[in-house]
Amino acid sequence: MKLLIIDGKSGRMGAQIIEGLRKAGISERHTIIAVGTNALATSAMVNAGADRGATGENAVIVQCKSADVIIGSLGIALADSMLGEVSPNMAIAVGQSAAERILLPTDKCNTFIVGAERLSMRQLVETAVEQILQIVS
User: Residue 53 forms beta bridges with which residues?
Assistant: First the structure.
């Protein structure tokens, strides 16, 4: 199973998810692909234990086509979010992918999700890791 983690800015959230998956002992049958909207984000996620990494719009578009699960903040599905790091084409690729999507509802993208709990980043990451483990098992 191919897990695609998309992150921007510093890549800290994506790195925390990867670390959580590795700590939980995610099987070698699953490949973790890290795609950063910038090189810093990609580097952070690869250093956290991603199997492979790539950077930029085309990498997001290509990897979304074959991913089984896409993980990232809500902003990866919103054009021009993350201070403009997410292009419209990237958001379309995430939205049109046949993959299951696990989107963390952070409040950094000027979008409020009614009914979503306001959790700390640590709690969001823990919840995301639990959901990913349920999907892959």
Answer: 34
Task: Read off the pTM.
Answer: 0.92
pLDDT digits (tens, 9 = 90+) for 49-91: 999 999 999 999 999 999 999 999 999 999 999 989 999 999 9
CA–CA distance, 32 with 22 (Å, rounded to integer): 10
Q: 36, 131, 26, 40: which is closest to 90 by C-alpha?
A: 36
Instruction: Kindly state the tokens that stand for 7.
Output: 């992150």
For 41, the domain range is 2-132
**Domain of 92: which CATH number?**
3.40.50
Query: CA dist 80 to 11, 30, 110, Å?
Result: 17, 30, 11
Does residue 137 lie within any of the structural domains?
no
**Contacting residues for 6 by C-beta, under 8 A, at least 6 apart:** 14, 35, 36, 37, 60, 70, 71, 72, 76, 90, 94
Contact 72, 58 (CB under 8 A): no
CB atoms within 10 A of CB 123: 12
